[in-house]
């Protein structure tokens, strides 16, 4: 006979023991937190530099994401990925990161909506006009795919929809998802950092005038402090600067100047160099044209020692920007037409490095090829290439409009993509090793080898140069073509390059994240939609019914055996 009282006590004991295990497990989980990401591409993980940044926050960070409401499927995926990333931020910040999603289109009045739209645009969150189809009709919606990050009363707008626009909407969304962690973490770092890095713009060797780099300085001004630096002022300590920028030097560097630059690198200083090998007079390219002559800046041996050589040539590319040319007269005024100009390559091929991941097309002007040379201890990573429809014009190069009109035949552009920017990383050897130290410098202070260091060399001095509005003659934003209105991604490359060179915490490694697109077969989904809907509705019910019947049969057999024992 079954002892029911004993059975009840046993069940109660098991219940209490189980409850105790649950309480203990919860207490341990509260104190010993860990997170396990089982996805193939680790999409729910954040990088260690981001974790370190979040763990050091002193106050709450508020993130308002303006991507909510009725959205097509790909933007819903984007929105959900932002929420997943912010959930991770909230965990690793100890709850200091707080966020909410806002639909800016549901403002209480037209005036309030316009004010909000203006505020978001002025914060750097440019709107996108979204057109998508539903089963009933076609819908148009203005969205602001970005966020406002607030910390200690300071705010920063972050545009989250950032990708290579030439690769199609799905790829842009995917690249934007991959970049969410980096974009938001960078904004938090900028708001929470007490100190700012110092960047020196080298002057005194015919570098670009301040008006021509106004766009570049505007790009960096929010994150860094910029100063003009003249090597001829020997009393100025170069080591005070975290980065030195060479913006198209056109005049000769003396041995003393090169020594100062070299020793700056030997002590761990970073370099970002935009070097032109040849110069051409655009006012003389009509008719038979003009020859391009070398710049006499005398920097070839310095960069050769560090591992690269900017060649005395030009790259023509069929994938190019346009340039206005006089093609006739309209009354008493010259008539201008825009023509493709192969000397202005549109760069849309990038190397395998987080710094250039997801960057859209950039534009170069009179770009040269770069060769790598042997430099022990230096790793050379190509960052940018011209398109596969390129050809190299070896020196002496004659630049003529008439030649371009007659020679832009695809069969002549078969040299393939040419590297035009390199990242150099490692231990650099001084140009002055086994040489006499220039006069005026104590030999005892000479350093022959650098610590682990980084240099970026771009074979286009005008890559950093902004244009001017033809009517107002005022500088336009970097990357903007004032004639066509096209916007290129030069600022994105420059900002990423500076971030990578000077930031020790390595936030830019977050850009290495990859999210794989696994699209559904739309035709198969449409054809089999009802079948799978029916399965999803009926299958759970059948499983529950089968479970109930099975349990009932087992109970009958169990109690039937008790009756037989009696």
Can you give keywords for this protein?
alpha+beta; eight-stranded mixed sheet; 11 helices; 24 strands; globular
Briefly say what this structure is.
With 566 residues, this protein is α+β, with helices and mostly antiparallel strands.
Radius of gyration, in Å, reads: 31 Å
The number of helical elements comes to 11
Q: Which structural class best describes the helix and strand composition? A: alpha+beta
Strand tally is: 24
Task: Determine the fraction of residues in helical runs and give it as a percent range.
Answer: 25-40%
| Residue-averaged pLDDT | 85
Neighbour order of strands in the largest sheet: 8-7-9-10-24-23-20-17
What form results from the Cα inertia axes? globular
Separation, N- and C-terminal Cα atoms: 7 Å
Q: Kindly estimate the percentage of residues that lie in beta strands according to DSSP.
A: 15-25%
């Amino acid at each position: 006979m079954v002892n029911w009282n004993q059975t009840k006590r046993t069940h109660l004991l098991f219940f209490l023991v189980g409850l105790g295990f649950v309480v203990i497990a919860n207490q341990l989980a509260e104190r010993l937190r860990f997170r396990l990401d089982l996805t193939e591409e680790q999409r729910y993980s954040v990088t260690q530099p981001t974790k370190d940044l979040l763990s050091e926050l002193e106050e709450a960070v508020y993130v308002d994401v303006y991507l909510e409401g009725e959205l097509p499927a790909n933007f819903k995926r984007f929105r959900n990925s932002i929420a997943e990333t912010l959930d991770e931020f909230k965990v690793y910040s100890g709850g200091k990161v707080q966020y909410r999603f806002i639909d800016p289109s549901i403002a209480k009045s037209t005036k309030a909506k316009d004010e909000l739209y203006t505020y978001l645009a002025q914060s750097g969150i440019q709107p996108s006009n979204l057109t998508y189809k539903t089963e009933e009709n076609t819908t148009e919606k203005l969205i602001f795919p970005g966020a406002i990050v607030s910390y200690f009363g300071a705010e920063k707008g972050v545009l989250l929809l950032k990708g290579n626009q030439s690769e199609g909407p799905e790829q842009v969304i995917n690249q934007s998802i991959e970049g969410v962690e980096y974009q938001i973490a960078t904004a938090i770092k900028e708001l929470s950092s007490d100190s700012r890095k110092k960047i020196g713009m080298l002057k005194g060797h015919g570098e670009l005038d301040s008006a021509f780099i106004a766009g570049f300085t505007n790009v960096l001004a929010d994150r860094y402090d910029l100063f003009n630096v003249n090597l001829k002022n020997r009393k100025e300590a170069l080591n005070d600067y975290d980065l030195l920028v060479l913006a198209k030097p056109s005049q000769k560097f003396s041995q003393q100047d090169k020594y100062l630059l070299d020793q700056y690198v030997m002590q761990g200083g970073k370099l970002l160099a935009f070097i032109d090998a040849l110069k051409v007079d655009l006012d003389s390219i009509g008719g038979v044209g003009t020859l391009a002559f070398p710049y006499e800046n005398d920097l070839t041996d310095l960069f050769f020692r560090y591992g690269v050589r900017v060649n005395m040539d030009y790259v023509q590319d069929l994938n190019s920007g346009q340039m206005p040319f006089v093609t006739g007269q309209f009354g008493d005024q010259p008539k201008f037409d825009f023509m493709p100009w192969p000397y202005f390559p549109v760069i849309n091929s990038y190397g395998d490095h987080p710094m250039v991941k997801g960057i859209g097309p950039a534009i170069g002007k009179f770009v040269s090829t770069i060769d790598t040379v042997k430099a022990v201890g230096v790793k050379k990573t190509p960052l940018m290439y011209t398109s596969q429809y390129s050809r190299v014009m070896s020196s002496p190069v004659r630049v003529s409009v008439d030649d371009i009109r007659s020679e832009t035949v695809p069969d002549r552009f078969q040299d393939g993509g040419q590297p035009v920017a390199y990242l150099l990383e490692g231990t650099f050897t001084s140009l002055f090793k086994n040489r006499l130290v220039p006069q005026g410098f104590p030999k005892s202070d000479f350093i022959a080898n650098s610590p682990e260091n980084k240099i970026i060399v771009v074979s286009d001095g005008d890559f950093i140069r902004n244009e001017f509005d033809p009517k107002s003659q005022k500088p336009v934003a970097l990357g903007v073509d004032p004639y066509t209105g096209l916007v290129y991604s030069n600022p994105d490359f420059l900002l990423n390059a500076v971030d990578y060179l000077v930031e020790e915490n390595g936030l830019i490694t977050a850009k290495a994240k990859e999210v794989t697109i696994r699209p559904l077969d739309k035709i198969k989904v449409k054809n089999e939609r009802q079948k799978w809907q029916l399965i999803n509705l009926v299958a759970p019910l059948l499983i529950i019914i089968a479970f109930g019947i099975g349990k009932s049969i087992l109970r009958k057999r169990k109690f039937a055996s008790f009756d037989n024992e009696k």
